[in-house]
Amino acid sequence: MARDDWDPTTLPDLSGRRYLVTGSTAGLGFFASLQLAEAGAHVIMTGRNPNKLATARVAVRRQVPDAEITTLLLDTSNLGSVRAAAATVRGRAGLHGLLLNAGVVHPPRHRETTADGHEVVFATNALGHYALAGELLPPLAAGRGRMVWVGSISTAMGNYDPVDPELETNYSPWRAYVQSKVATTALGFEADRRLRAANVPIASLVAHPGYAISGRTRGILGINEPTRMTRFVDNLQAPITQSKERGAWPLVRALVDPEAIGGQFWGPSRLVAGAPTLGQASTLARREDIAARLWDYCEHATGITWPYLKASRPRRLWRR
């Protein structure tokens, strides 16, 4: 059971700890970065647009003048960018946490592919994060850290088993998004099983933000600037939504709560909103056969085999 005295507005002192957050220039990634910085952490904010990264860093520093912030260009849809960013991080000190947050929230109407030839939603939300986490295992192991994958309540809204993860047939924006989130959740749990089997001192958890929307989030120049109409419409949904600040709470708790452990699933207490607490992922996202299939697909598609896990392959008891 999760303790009930956790205060997401007063985090433990994170001085001397180092975290990397993907997709830091807006939304959940920005507010997670801000909350970590307020607690004294050194935050590596990442994004694919240098101007937006600079704006986000200034916005954090405006609220936390002494924040330890490093910015790093990273596009999770581009495997070359993932490898380059990871190489930069590996050249520094240990890493205590990795928040795999970046993602396509509004998929294109028609199927699009990346420069690497992968479907853009799956590449950005799942494939790139599999690659990044694998490339960053050495500094995470050095810091005895943890990784948090960002799931979604959408995974319970239909049976979208990603047998065709890149949707080469039957593409639709909704299916692309849901399948990518089934994948990130399943990969997060599979990562924890494999890391445990190999006795690697890294925990892998999954967290979701509930239904967090911009119109219920405070305005920040260059970060969150909803129109009056968006504010009006989003506030009509107040009983079933929350701000993106609050949406970041389960992600951050999964990342820093000393009592959190690998394999857990964190989210708002009322599913769509509320204080961060332990929950349960959808049945589909918990299936180990789906997770193992997705892991093998990601390994083949990226050409990246996670270090430390090779010796544990004969012991993969979960693969029935």
From TrEMBL:
Q: PANTHER family from the xrefs?
A: DEHYDROGENASE
- EC class, as a word, reads oxidoreductase
Q: Which Pfam families match?
A: adh_short
List the EC numbers from the record: 1.1.1.270
Q: Which InterPro entries match?
A: Ergosterol_Biosynth_ERG27, NAD(P)-bd_dom_sf, SDR_fam
Q: Per its record, how is this protein called by name?
A: 3beta-hydroxysteroid 3-dehydrogenase
Its domain of life reads: Bacteria
Pathway entry = Steroid biosynthesis; zymosterol biosynthesis; zymosterol from lanosterol: step 5/6
GO terms of molecular function:
3-beta-hydroxysteroid 3-dehydrogenase (NADP+) activity
